[in-house]
């Protein structure tokens, strides 16, 4: 495919066919530039001096490869509409855990550790793993496995689009849509990635307010302020100017884990219907917040750690989240983490 696309670029450039009627068969220069910069010599990525109206039309018709189709009614393929019902009423905390279809072992580790719904018995916690469609090569086998896993645990929420890093925003938005449809009275929503350590006790008791209503404008986590879009091609966070042209991002809570009040989650979802979705989900939530006039609330200092930290019993009792934590390590430290240790300084 790539080769064919490159060929189209080459042809359209060397034969200068772009002004002809059928030139729409060829790619526009921006796409070519992107392709060319992957491997080909620099002369191919020079911008073309000729601008035809054809090219303009093509640009309108062809979405950027990072473009997201939203709003769009993606189906829930595995669903649990009554997850939030129960004798104890709406959950205090709804955990939306982002995982990939193939991460079966990661989900199992999370269920046995921080994703355990009954870890803090005084509050109602509900957990759902949000995932998309498996990669095409093994999709049949994986899909059957997923359905089996869900029969056993009843905690998968599968949405009908390809599960890729660049589609993460869709996963978060569809998690919020599920919440709006089936769990609108949840007091708080936690968006969390699967490569983290999480301390639900500290989150519930020191960061949230278990005995009162949730503040309507509350969102907290590790806040990034005044950051610039990455404009270097081929980097993980590259943001094409065509998709986001401003020179600064709004303040936002960083993706690995943030928690917000249920009412704010619903307002973000409403706002998201009118904002162009970008693939950086945390920045996108920040854009919605800015439109809503809501500022993220700073968390207690050093409680949302964005980089790996070696496990330490006492230190981990007094934080919410550590990013870049592998599930094997999570399983290893968890029994120790749960033991009480009188030698730790009191919280
Ligand atoms: C969840 O936590 C409760 C209370 O600590 C415990 O009894 C239960 O075995 C745990 N469940 C899992 C799946 O680990
Ligand atoms: C997102 O999902 C759609 C629908 O499955 C797919 O066509 C598209 O390639 C995905 N986008 C990215 C950037 O991965």
TrEMBL record:
GO BP annotations listed: lipid metabolic process; protein O-linked glycosylation
InterPro entries linked to this entry: Glyco_trans_31 (IPR002659)
Pfam families, A to Z: Galactosyl_T
Domain of life: Eukaryota
GO MF, one example: N-acetyl-beta-D-glucosaminide beta-(1,3)-galactosyltransferase activity
Membrane topology note: Single-pass type II membrane protein
EC category: transferase
Gene3D superfamilies registered for this protein in UniProt: 3.90.550.50
Keyword vocabulary terms for this entry: Glycoprotein, Glycosyltransferase, Golgi apparatus, Lipid metabolism, Membrane, Signal, Signal-anchor, Transferase, Transmembrane, Transmembrane helix
GO CC entries: Golgi membrane
EC number: 2.4.1.-
Compartment list: Golgi apparatus membrane
Family affiliation: Belongs to the glycosyltransferase 31 family.
PANTHER family: BETA-1,3-N-ACETYLGLUCOSAMINYLTRANSFERASE (PTHR11214), HEXOSYLTRANSFERASE (PTHR11214:SF151)
Protein name per UniProt: Hexosyltransferase
Annotated gene: LOC100012002
């Amino acid at each position: 495919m790539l080769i064919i696309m490159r060929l189209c670029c080459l042809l359209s450039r060397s034969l200068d066919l772009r002004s002809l009627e059928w030139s729409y068969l060829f790619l526009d220069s921006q796409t070519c530039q992107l392709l060319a910069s992957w491997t080909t010599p620099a002369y191919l990525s020079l911008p073309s001096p000729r601008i035809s109206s054809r090219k303009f039309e093509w640009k309108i018709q062809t979405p950027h490869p990072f473009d997201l189709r939203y709003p769009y009614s993606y189906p829930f393929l595995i669903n649990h509409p009554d997850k939030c019902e129960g004798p104890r009423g709406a959950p205090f905390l709804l955990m939306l855990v982002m995982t990939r279809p193939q991460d079966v072992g990661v989900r199992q580790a999370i269920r046995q550790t921080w994703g355990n719904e009954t870890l803090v018995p005084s509050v109602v916690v509900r957990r759902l793993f949000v995932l998309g469609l498996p990669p095409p090569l093994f999709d049949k086998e994986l899909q059957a496995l997923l359905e089996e896993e869900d029969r056993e645990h009843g905690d998968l929420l599968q949405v009908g689009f390809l599960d890729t890093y660049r589609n993460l925003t869709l996963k978060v938005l569809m998690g919020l849509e599920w919440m709006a449809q089936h769990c609108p009275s949840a007091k708080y929503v936690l968006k969390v990635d699967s490569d983290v350590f999480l301390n639900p006790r500290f989150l519930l008791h020191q960061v949230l307010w278990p005995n009162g209503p949730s503040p309507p404008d509350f969102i907290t986590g590790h806040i990034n302020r005044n950051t610039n879009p990455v404009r270097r091609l081929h980097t993980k966070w590259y943001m094409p100017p065509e998709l986001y042209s401003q020179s600064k991002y709004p303040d936002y809570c960083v993706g690995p884990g943030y928690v917000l009040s249920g009412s704010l989650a619903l307002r973000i979802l409403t706002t998201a219907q009118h904002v162009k979705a970008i693939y950086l989900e945390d920045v996108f939530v920040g854009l919605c917040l800015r439109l809503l006039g809501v500022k993220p609330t700073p968390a207690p200092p050093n409680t949302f750690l964005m980089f790996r930290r070696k496990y330490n019993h006492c230190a981990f009792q007094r934080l919410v989240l550590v990013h870049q934590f592998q599930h094997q390590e999570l399983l290893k430290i968890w029994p120790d983490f749960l033991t009480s240790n009188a030698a730790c300084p009191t919280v």
